[in-house]
Structures are given as C-alpha cells and as structure tokens.
Amino acid sequence: MALANQKGGVAKTTSTVNLGVALRELGYSVLAVDMDPQGNLTMSQGVDPETLRVSMFNVLVQGVPIDDVIHEREIHVAVASIDLAGAELSLAPVIGRERALAKALLTVRDVYDFILIDTPPSLGLLTINALTASEGVIVPVQCEYLSLRGLAQLERTLELVRENLNPEVHILGILPTLFDSRTLHGAEAVEVLRSNFGDLVFNTVVRKTIKFAEAPVKGMSVLTYAPHSEAARAYRALAREVINGKTI
Ligand SMILES: Nc1ncnc2c1ncn2[C@@H]1O[C@H](COP(=O)(O)OP(=O)(O)OP(=O)(O)O)[C@@H](O)[C@H]1O
Ligand SMILES: [Mg+2]
C-alpha cells in the first residue's frame, strides 16, 4: 500500500508509521518503505539518515538488494536519506524507471503481510514508483477545504498509472487527519469529503494532538509513546478498517 498525497504535511509519514505499528500489534509482519528524500519515516523510527551507508537511492538506482537497507525497529523500515532526491534524475534515462521499486520489492513481497510505502509531497517519479508497486493507496487528507482540492489531481495520476503501468492500483480509502474538533471548519471539511467520496472515506478520523509531534522525536510511534491515548486508538481503529473493510 502506498500512502500518497502530493500536498505536504497531511500526515502521510505519521500514518505510515502508526498504521504500520498498529498492524504489527495485531500480529502482522510489516515493512515500511521510505520513498521520501526528507527521510522523515526513517528518522521517526530512530534512524539518522545522515549516518546511512546504503539507502533506497542505492536500491532504486544501483540495484542494491532492499534487504541491505532494511532496519529492524518497531516495524521493519527500508531507509532513505537526502540523496534519494537524486534518484529522479538518475532514473530518468533508464528503461523501466517507473518500475524500479516494484522490481526491488519482488524479493520481499512474500516475506511481509503488509508493505507500506511513504511518498514525498509530489507526483514525481518517486511517487509514480510507489503507485506502480502498490495494490492500493491510502490518501491522508487534512481536514481543511483547501486540502480537498488536490484529490482530483491525485486521481488523474492514478488513472494514468492504471492505464500504463499497474492496472490494479486503486484508492483503498481516504483518511481524514489533523482534525480539529474545536472548529466548525474541520467538521465541515469531513462532511464535504464524505459527500464527495462516500464509502471511500475511512470511518476513522485522526484528531489533532501534540503527541504526534512528540513521538517521532523519541524515535517511536504514538502507539508506543502513548499507548492509551486517543491518538493511538485512532490508528488501531484504522488498522482494523484496513484489514476488514477496505480489502486489497
Ligand atoms: N493528528 C495529528 N495531530 C497533530 N500533529 C500531527 C498529526 N499528524 C501529523 N502531525 C504532525 O504534522 C506534521 C506533518 O506530518 P507528517 O510529516 O506525517 O506529514 P507528511 O504528509 O508526511 O508531510 P510531507 O508531505 O512533508 O512528507 C508533523 O510535524 C507531524 O508530527
Ligand atoms: Mg512525509
């Protein structure tokens, strides 16, 4: 599954980590792949991107086995650092450049129950690679009017990926995030989402809380940092929805 939205700061990385750990708690084996040169997923599991000898850049561009860049933390993480920014350029002339990630994952597809791919805030080649390698996409959306507008563009990109690269990939669900219950605006934004996308919107709505900013600093998920918080409960509920309803 890819977690994608070209808008920045909508909780793609936060959702990748916490959904991953929630699935792990349920007994599934989980790999999270960091496809963002910012390396936020890598960092939020306590790995310093600057200390890495090999990372997703080497996997995508040089064919290094993905096993070599997987670190075992709360979940398994295929790590990334800033050099991944150069992958788009390095891959540009390569035949099959959109399939580099799908190819790299072949060796581990059957090892994990779930592979979650965190993507950068753009619809460039790294995100296209993630969509090409995925069966489904989870789209975190910030509960604000303006963030709802980017969804059409993401859907167009998905349509192109389906036509040309991966006929299977579809939206598994839209996840309302950063919900502020104190404002009418937040509630209205969720209404607008549900009236436009109906069942595609997860029942789980992730509220705004400072815990999500605190946990990554400690290199851990909210489920470990504050196991009994509402924040942790939200991602556990999402994990159950992913397993039950929105089947792959
Ligand atoms: N429910 C929440 N409540 C409060 N803060 C949150 C919540 N979810 C995420 N955040 C915070 O919002 C910021 C953006 O989240 P995150 O990095 O997950 O977004 P992103 O979509 O991955 O961003 P980018 O597009 O830059 O990769 C982070 O500082 C994160 O800690
Ligand atoms: Mg991110």
Q: List the secondary-structure elements in sequence, H or E.
A: EHEHHEEHHEHEHHEHHHH
Number of helices: 12
Query: What integer is the average pLDDT?
Result: 95
Could you tell me the number of beta strands?
7
Strand order of the largest sheet: 3-4-2-5-1-6-7
Question: What is the helix fraction of residues, given as a range?
Answer: 40-55%
Low-confidence stretches: none
Net shape = globular
Label the CATH architecture: 3-Layer(aba) Sandwich
Overall domain count = 1
Any overview of this molecule?
The protein has 248 residues and is an alpha/beta fold. The chain has one domain (2-244): 3-Layer(aba) Sandwich (Rossmann fold), CATH 3.40.50. It has helices at 12-25, 40-44, 56-62, 87-91, 100-105, 125-133, 145-148, 151-164, 184-197, 211-217, 222-225, 230-244; strands spanning 2-3, 30-34, 70-72, 76-78, 114-118, 136-142, 170-177. The termini are close together. The model has no long low-confidence stretch (mean pLDDT 95). Bound molecules: adenosine-5'-triphosphate and magnesium ion.
